[in-house]
């Protein structure tokens, strides 16, 4: 039996939200996937991600793409927004941030499949676009993750504006 959505999440609709300035995975909230009988993707586009370079303390900016196939639990979008905001003063390399995000979402939801892509704006004349993914071991999603990893940049975009 499905739960009342009001009982599942606390942040959505709450106007007294505390925007954490330091990395905090405890912000993340989940709710029940009411369509567990089918595979489907949920994709988040997060164009205002900010973290700090761990060496210089300078800000790094990115668009983060998170796509996943849920099992029992799904991430609530406002909690995801606040969680991503908590990286604002977090000093870590681009690759580490993307893997941390993916690991925290796996811990929260135990999805069938998930991938996280960061498209960072250039600093020093170079941009970095780390891609990471995960498919549940021993399932078709593990094979899907392998396939998508091998082919994730098969048709790279033409970037001339960042």
Short description:
Pfam families: QueF. This protein has 162 residues and is α+β, with helices and mostly antiparallel strands.
Layout of helices and strands:
Layout lengths: L4 H4 L21 E3 L9 E11 L6 E11 L3 E3 L1 H9 L8 H16 L3 E8 L10 E5 L4 H12 L11
Antiparallel strand pairs: 1-4, 2-3, 3-5, 5-6
Fourth-tier CATH superfamily name = GTP cyclohydrolase I, C-terminal domain/NADPH-dependent 7-cyano-7-deazaguanine reductase, N-terminal domain
CATH architecture: 2-Layer Sandwich
- Number of domain units: 1
N→C terminal distance:
48 Å
Overall shape: flat
Kindly state the number of beta strands.
6
Strand order of the largest sheet: 2-3-5-6
For the sheet with most strands, the description reads:
4 strands, antiparallel
List SSEs in N-to-C order: HEEEEHHEEH
> On the 0-100 scale, what is the average pLDDT?
89
Poorly predicted parts: none
Q: In CATH terms, what is the fold-level topology?
A: GTP Cyclohydrolase I, domain 2
User: Which structural class fits the helix and strand makeup?
Assistant: alpha+beta
Instruction: Assign a percent range to the helix content.
Output: 25-40%
Radius of gyration: 17 Å
Approximately what portion of the residues adopt beta-strand conformation?
25-35%
Tell me the number of helical segments per DSSP (H or I, 4 or more residues long). 4
Q: Given this structure, which CATH class is correct?
A: Alpha Beta
């Amino acid at each position: 039996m499905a739960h009342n959505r009001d009982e599942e999440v606390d942040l959505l609709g709450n106007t007294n939200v505390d925007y954490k300035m330091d990395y905090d995975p405890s912000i993340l909230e989940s709710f029940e996937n009411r369509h567990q009988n089918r595979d489907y993707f949920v994709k988040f586009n997060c164009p205002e991600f900010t973290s700090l370079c761990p060496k210089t303390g300078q800000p790094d900016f990115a668009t983060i793409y998170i796509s996943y196939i849920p099992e029992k639990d799904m991430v609530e979008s406002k909690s995801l927004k606040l969680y991503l905001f908590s990286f604002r003063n977090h000093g870590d390399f681009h690759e580490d941030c993307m893997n941390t995000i993916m690991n925290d979402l796996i811990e929260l939801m135990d999805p069938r499949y998930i991938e996280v892509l960061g498209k960072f704006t250039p600093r020093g004349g170079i941009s970095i676009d780390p891609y990471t993914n995960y498919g549940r071991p021993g399932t078709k999603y593990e094979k899907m993750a392998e396939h998508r990893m091998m082919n994730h940049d098969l048709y790279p975009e033409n970037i001339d504006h960042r």
